[in-house]
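From the pipeline queue, job 12 of 40. The input is one protein chain; the requested action is below.

Action: predict structure.
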Amino acid sequence: MKILRANTDDIDSIERIYENIHDAEENGLTSIGWIRNIYPTRKTAQDALNRNDLFVIKDNGKVTAAAVINQIQVDEYKYAEWKHKVKENEIMTLHCLAVDPFENGKGYGTAFVSFYEDYAKRHGCTALRMDTNEINHRARKLYKTLGYDEVGIVKCEFNGIPDVRLVCLEKYLG
């Protein structure tokens, strides 16, 4: 298993992961809160690729997970009660972590979060932030297990999805 920056050749695979997640949600197999053709989409991945902040896990050459890692905090974060007050340049953010549902239970989510934490340290960041939909119990459980604190829930329209209860999570490395 390798985690590396995505390239143009990975976009089709990432889009397939998003579609597999949308299929699973529409069939009642998972509850994430994403909506097909709204978020995430191929454009979500392409925009991140263009910013050079899209990463993938490849296992035996196959893309099994993807996420965006950068220092961009979404506007909704200003409504969260962050426990650690740090400078903007000391915050790293994880967005849109997507593991192919056909690959669940293999540790890809945990591996991605571990990579994210190491990446943040290498870039001098002491505060880690991320979010998930309140209904995404699997992600919330994972993040809690990995030491992330839920610092608040922001009611909003998020990435074009109405009536989201956005759970803001934080971990301090300082």
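Job complete. The chain has a mean pLDDT of 97.
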